[in-house]
Structure formats: C-alpha cells, structure tokens
Amino acid sequence: MGAKHILVVEDEEVIRETLRFNLVREGYQVSQAANGIEALEKARELRPDLIVLDLMLPELGGLEVCRILRQETTTPVLVLSARDSELDKIVGLRVGADDYMTKPFSLAELTARVMALLRRAQPTAEERGVIEVEEFGDFRFDRGARSVRVRDETLRLSPKEFDLLSFLLANPGRVHSREQLIRRVWGPKFFGERKTVDVHVRWLREKFEPFEALPFRITTVYGVGYRLDRILEPSEPAAPDVAVIGRR
After folding, report:
1. Cut 0.70: pTM above it
2. How far is Cα 191 from Cα 194, in angstroms, rounded to an integer?
3. Which domains does the chain show, CATH number per domain?
4. If residue 29 lies in a helix (H) or strand (E), which one and from where to where?
5. How far apart are alpha carbons 50 and 138 in whole angstroms?
6. Using only C-alpha atoms, what is the Rg of the chain?
7. Is 80 helix (H, G, I), strand (E, B) or coil?
C-alpha cells in the first residue's frame, strides 16, 4: 500500500509550505490548494485520503468547501482556524469536519491528529467482524456503502455520525460512557471535549426525528452515557430516566 495522500488547503504560502514539508517528512504524499475553488477541484480529481482545510479562504470560504465536500465524499477533513470559540467549533463540526484545530498549533499535535483521522478511516478488526448490512423493516444500514435508508429516503450522515451509529448498532443493550465512545469512535488520540459525543447524538436524533416507526432508540442513561436499544414492540414506553431518539 502506497503513502497516504493528503490535500492541504491554505491560502498563506508560508503555512502551506510548512505543512507540506512536515507531512512529507512523515511519509505522506501531499498536494496543495490555495483557495476554495481549487480545493474542490483537486479533491474531486485527486481523491485524497485526508484534507487539511483552512477556513479563511479566498473565492470560496472553508465552511462552504467543507459542506460541499461532505455531500460528495466521506474523506476525513481536519479544519484549521484562527477562531477558537465554542460556537465556531460546533459550526465547523456540524458542516462535516471530523476534527478542528485552532491557530497557532504545534506541528506535533497536527501530525498526531492526522494519524488518528487516517487510522479511524480504516476499518478495524472489530468493524470487519460485524454484519455489513442491517435491515429492520423500513430501516437499512449498509456499512460497506456507508449509507442509511429509512423507507425510501436516504439520510445524509456525517462520517462521525455514521461511525457512532454503526458502533451503537453493533453493541445494542450496552451502556457506553462518553469516554468509551470517544475511544471507540473518535480514537485514543482525540484531543476534543467529551461534549462532542453529546453533540453528535443530538444530531442523530434530529435526523431520525421525522420517522416514527424506527427499530431502535438511543437512550441517555443520565450520569453514565448512552445505550442503543432494539425496539420489539412499537408501543413500548420509554423508561423514565432516558431520552429517546427523536424526542427532546
């Protein structure tokens, strides 16, 4: 297997070249883009294994680039930004970024995050051992195609939303703490906050909320974490200490 291919999107030449030099030194193949339009063109043409994306770009902003990329590909996206507020980070993750780093940053940390994202993009032995396609009535979850359908509608999940749901579906009935979910879904070198799990669970609930007859529910076990339960009876009442997928 050849070297992993990384696309670095950064309009400041000094930063772009510094990133290229260090990533090449780590053994990666690196391509570059200096604006948002060029980033989309190269992402479509080169199909890199990972994209390092600055948000402040000419011609087309990084958030819009990320939003478009997420509609077209599941390639991991590591966002770079000078904005460090919680809201900016949430917006970046919500449009499809897999990780978010604020400037200035250390090259060692960036390299570690790149390695973690690339590793998580590869199927683990545990993932290869689970059923590739799960179908329950009108619900179809295809791990190979990374697609989710309810009735005749295909749902668009971000890579991390898909990975989180995949893990929960593969381990029904078990309570997982936020720390366990971060290790299993985001990886042991994830540098973000525990609330990342809460945010992604909320987004999953919002996307499944329009559908009533789902074959599962994601429950919040207060003070502990989350559990996915198979639903045997459509009228089964929710336990008093849980929040059910699709309900607020």
Report:
1. no
2. 10
3. 5-121 (3.40.50.2300), 127-230 (1.10.10.10)
4. strand 29-33
5. 33
6. 19
7. strand
